[in-house]
Amino acid sequence: MFDNLLESIEEKKRIISVVDFCEGNLYENKIDQNLSRKKFQTLYSIDMDDLVEFVDSEDEKTIVLVHICQHNIRACTRLNEVLAQISIACPYIKIGYIEETGNQFKKEMLPILIVYQNGDVLESHIRIIDEIGHNFDFDDILNFLLDRKYVSPSEVQCIN
Questions:
Q1: Helices (H) and strands (E) in the chain — how many of each?
Q2: Residue 83: which domain range?
């Protein structure tokens, strides 16, 4: 009976060590995956002529956000401020804005947020303030990205 108890304890120890090893490897693999990913951590100003290169130059896993804006629209200015913070908190997302100076977009359509991955448009949010509200902040945009799974909670870094 004592031998069976010892065998049972040894078996539990072996199982625990296998689980610990697997969890450690999963953690290390997650770190390795993030170490090999490109970090952006900035809000890029781009021209409409550079949009294709801006979007297509990244690997298939990278989410690219493009904000089409006009500086004289309060919601556009606010969204750029928040996206600058998001770019730091979500370093694996590439974020840029295009200052719309012509008449390609009516003011009533702005701000526009377009989401790309692997060169394809995933979503286009015309007048995004209708979705997130007029008094949006960092948390609103972060939750918007989390809800749509453009960023995972484990990829979000704390910012001060």
A1: 5, 5
A2: 43-155
This prediction's pTM: 0.76
Can you give the pLDDT at residue 10? 65
Domain assignment present for residue 160? The answer is: no
Over the stretch 23-51, which tens digit does the pLDDT of each residue have?
Answer: 554 444 444 456 678 999 999 999 999 99
CB-facing half-sphere around the CA of 38: CA atoms within 13 A: 13
21, part of any domain: yes
Task: With cut-offs at 50, 70 and 90, classify the pLDDT of residue 100.
Answer: confident
d(CA 17, CA 34): 26
CATH at residue 100 = 3.40.30.10
In terms of Cα–Cα distance, which of 46, 68, 67, 73 is closest to 57?
A: 46
Domain match, 92 and 17 both: no
* Domain count within the chain: 2
